Amino acid sequence: MKEKIYTIPITEVFEKETFCPFCDLYQKLETEAVKYAVGPAMMEPDFRAVTNRKGFCKKHIADIESESKALALSLMLKTHLETLSAILDKEITEPKKKMFSKQTAPSSLDGISGEIDKTVYDCTICGKISHSFDRYVDTFFHLIATEESFREMFRNTGGFCFEHFSLLLSEGKHKLKEGAYLEFSRQLIANQKEKMEKHYQNILDFIDQFDYRNANKPPKAPRDTVYQCCKLLNGVFEQKQKKLEDI
Ligand SMILES: [Zn+2]
Ligand SMILES: [Zn+2]
């Protein structure tokens, strides 16, 4: 049953403790999409055709480049560069000169830059992720609307990152009936407030630790308070190595 393909990951992620269930789902899709792009996809002519036309965003080209699949990646880059080369070879047509008008740039140049943007930055991985992620969001609301046991799980979640909180608040409006949406949004906001207050308190305690009067007291806030609070605002991300002068 097709529905099961999407409901299982949703119920699984809500059963466990996560920072944000939707960040968790997103990261899983992202890991799979990157592995797929440099793995079996290389052998699929359909996928190769897509990566000839489209490229990768900066985040995903970095993910792909870090995979130890130099041959697969160089094959993809080869065909991609050939597509770009064909775009550059397009003829630049001169605009028809009107009397008294200023010299304008040929409009065919706009076409070339548009094609380059699409070929270089329209991300194959982002596209693949968002297709499945949208289905997950649909399924989440289907479960909220139909399963009391899932609503119970949702009531017990510790909130979301703000990106996904905002997404659920706006999508719920279109995907739930009015009464159900009202109940859902109240619970969503209540959970989010609780999560935010916890992080806010941690930030206050963390700042307090810099006060000389607290120098000998044990720290009240977790060491990774700042990182956790950043995740709350922008979603889960991989923490970079600290620069020494920043510590
Ligand atoms: Zn999130
Ligand atoms: Zn991307």
Molecular structure report:
- The protein is mainly alpha-helical.
- The protein folds into 2 domains: 20-95 and 106-134, no CATH class; 158-239, no CATH class.
- Helices cover 69% and strands 0% of the residues.
- The chain has helices at residues 2-15, 21-38, 45-53, 58-66, 70-88, 107-121, 124-146, 148-155, 162-175, 178-208, 225-234.
- It is globular, with a radius of gyration of 24 Å.
- The termini are far apart.
- One zinc ion binds next to α2 and α9.
Structural class designation: mainly alpha
What overall form do the CA principal axes indicate? globular
- Backbone CA Rg: 24 Å
- End-to-end separation in angstroms reads 52 Å
Present as ligands are:
zinc ion
Helix content: 55-70%
Oligomer: single chain
Stretches where pLDDT is under 50 for at least 5 consecutive residues are none
- How many strand units? 0
Task: Classify the beta-strand content into a percent band.
Answer: under 5%
Number of helices: 11
Order of H and E elements = HHHHHHHHHHH
Overall structural domain count = 2
Largest sheet: none
| Residue-averaged pLDDT | 87
Features:
single chain; 247 residues; mainly alpha; binds zinc ion; 2 domains; 11 helices
Write the layout of secondary structure elements.
Elements: H1 2-15, H2 21-38, H3 45-53, H4 58-66, H5 70-88, H6 107-121, H7 124-146, H8 148-155, H9 162-175, H10 178-208, H11 225-234
Helix pairs in contact: 1-2, 1-7, 2-7, 3-5, 5-6, 7-8, 7-9, 9-10, 10-11
The structure holds zinc ion (2 copies).
Compact overview of the structure:
This protein has 2 domains: 20-95 and 106-134, no CATH class; 158-239, no CATH class. It contains 11 helices and no strands.
